Amino acid sequence: MIYSIEKIARILDGKLVGDGNVSINMLSKIDEGTKGSLSFFANKKYEEFLYTTKASAVIISSDININYSRISTNLIIVDDAYQGFATMLQTFSESRNNIEGVHKHSSIEESATIGKKCYVGSNVYISENVIIGDNVKIYPNCFIGENTSIDDNTILYAGVKIYDRCIIGKNCIIQSGAIIGGDGFGFAPNAENEYTKVAQIGNVILEDNVEIGANTTIDRATMGSTIIHQGVKLDNLIQIAHNVEIGKHTVIAAQSGVAGSTKIGENCMIGGQVGIVGHIKIGNNVKIAAQSGIQSDINENEIVQGSPAFSISEYKRAYVYFRQLPKLNSLVNKIEKEVKNILNK
Question: What integer is the mean pLDDT of 169-179?
Fold first, then answer.
C-alpha cells in the first residue's frame, strides 16, 4: 500500500511540514530510513539521526525542540510520535491484509460456509460443515478440520492447521505453523507395561482477540474443551496441553509449556521457557519469571522465580547467598586446615 505524506498527516491529525505529495510505501527505524519510508522521532537520544536520516518523512512529537535548519526530510508533527507511529504500523498491517477472494487452487467442501470479504489462499483445504465468518483471511497451505467455526476478522497465516470441531473467536491472529486441536498427550500403561493411546475427543476454544504465535501448539481436550480466553497472547513455540484453561488477557512468552488440566488465571504474565506441571491452579495477576519451574498452586498476585519456583523476594535473598558459595567454600576449607593444624600440635 502506498500513502502520500499528506494523507498520513490527515490520518494522524498532524501538522505537515514539507511536501505532502511524496509517497510512502514502507515504515522504518529512523537510523535505517530509505527513500519512500516513514519513521518517527520521540527520544532526544536519537536526535542526530533526525538530521541524517534518508527517510522520506518523520513523525515527531510537538513538545520536542529540534534544529529545523538541519532537517532535510519532511515532518509530520503530532502530540505523541510513538503513538502516531503505532497507528501507522496498524494501518499498514490492515492494508496488507485487505485482500479478498478464493484462490483457484484452494479446496472447499460444499457444506462449508464462507462469509463476506474473506480471503482463501492457494492450497487451503476447508472441510465439511466449517463455518467461516466475515472478513476472515486464510493464507496458503492452511487446513481447517470438520465442524470448525472461525468468527469475523480472524487471520490465519500460512500453514496453520486447525483440527475438527474447534471454535475460533473474532479478531484472532494465528501465526504460521501453529496447530490448534491436535491430540493431547494421553497414554495409559497396560499389563505388558506398554502404553495404550487414550482417545482425545474434546476440542479447543479460542475466544475473541486471542493471538497465537508461530509454531505454537494447543492440544484438544480429552473430554470437554481446552480454553484460551479473551485477549490472551501466546508467543512462538509454546505448548499448551489438553484441558488447560488460560484466563483473560494473560500473556506467555516463547518456549513455555503448560501440562494437562492446569488452570491459569486472568492478567498473568509468564516469561519465556517456563515449565508448568499439570493439574494445578495459578491465580489472577500472577507473574512468573523466565525459566521458572512451577510445581504447585500459586495464589493471586504472587511473583515467583526459580525452579522449583518460590517468592521472588525470597529468591533474590537466596541468590545473594548462592553467589557467595565459592567464597564460603574457600573459607570452610581454610578453617578445616587451621583446625587440623591445631589438633596435630
Answer: 98
